[in-house]
Design a protein that fits this description.
single chain, alpha/beta
Length: 321
């Protein structure tokens, strides 16, 4: 067994606590029939509807596929869509779905017609959770910490990880000696990465890095990360560069790895795939961690929708690395 194969097989011993917002992804596929007689509206015939769990739940699904044991703390609304989230089960998964009856579950409904994304309809309430619900989240975290080795925070900005919750959560995680990986989305909102100051492993894409340091250039020089280090109060920063690969700074060491050369079908979920493989590979061998994360993300983008790749495909590909 090669070293890379051994590392991948070793993922089965990892115990990961994941915190973050779950997104119910609905994909409706159809074929165009023409234009409406009344308005210039495309009329399509519905052919298939698929339901999938995205957001932080997709990170969990990737971790589970890679073999890890996962405890998952997430948020659902008091509605029928929450049923899909609660149906998320697995032999190595323990889920804590905190219910906020005053908000809807987060849903992103995408409509695809003849291979083109025609329209997306979101159901969401991005307000911060209440103090009462925040305490429920913190209680679940406290109970899970003794059974987990690393923590992954996947912040999709839909209310769970409020400034108040993070203000109590992060000190507890650091005091427990857990390595904390953070991936917080920007999307249509401003960056909130400074809420995660203080020693986390921060994962950014190039856009997010430049929202913090407008002059950032992904060079293999620790000095290039100076502003990011200062603003985020950490010396462990990953910057994902899409088709140009990824770069990881750990103090004075900067490591780069090229992206996999693949035919891209859909980039949705690629960042979640990267984060999952990277955190399992760990920071002790950054070159290997980046190579495995890029390979897993490369497998992800070859799949349409939010479906994780297969571990067997990763094992096949690492034989060629």
């Amino acid at each position: 067994m090669t070293t890379l194969e051994g590392i991948v097989e070793g993922f089965a011993t990892a115990r990961v606590l994941v915190l973050g917002d779950t997104i119910l992804d609905i994909y409706t596929y159809g074929s165009a029939m023409g234009l409406s007689a009344e308005t210039p509206t495309i009329v399509a015939r519905r052919e298939e509807v698929k339901y999938s769990l995205g957001g932080a739940a997709l990170v969990c699904r990737n971790l589970l596929e890679l073999g890890a044991t996962v405890e998952f703390v997430t948020l659902v609304g008091g509605d029928e869509e929450a049923v899909h989230v609660r149906a998320f089960t697995g032999s190595k998964l323990k889920m804590h779905a905190v219910v906020d009856p005053g908000r809807p579950s987060t849903v992103k409904h995408r409509f695809w017609v003849d291979g083109y994304k025609l329209f997306q309809l979101d159901q969401r309430d991005d307000r911060a959770i209440s103090a009462e619900i925040g305490q429920q989240v913190l209680t679940h975290v406290e109970e899970a910490l003794s059974n987990t080795d690393i923590v992954v925070i996947s912040d999709y900005r839909h209310g769970l990880l409020s400034p108040a919750v993070l203000g109590e959560l992060l000190p507890r995680l650091h005091a427990a000696g857990r390595l904390v990986y953070v991936d917080s989305q920007v999307s249509q909102t401003a960056a909130n990465h400074k809420l995660y100051r203080g020693g986390c492993v921060i994962c950014l894409n190039l856009k997010e890095a430049r929202l913090i340091d407008s002059g950032f250039k992904p060079e293999r020089d620790a000095g290039a990360f100076g502003v990011l280090n200062r603003e985020l109060d950490t010396e462990r920063i990953v910057v994902k560069l899409g088709e140009d690969g990824a770069i990881f700074q750990d103090g004075g060491q900067v490591t780069y790895a090229a992206a996999s050369k693949v035919t891209v079908a859909d980039t949705t979920g690629a960042g979640d795939a990267f984060l999952s493989a990277f955190c399992l590979a760990g920071v002790d061998n950054p070159e290997v961690a980046l190579r495995l994360a890029n390979t897993w993300a490369g497998l992800s983008v070859q799949i349409h929708g939010t479906t994780p790749p297969k571990k067997d495909d990763l094992l096949r590909d690492v034989e060629e690395l």
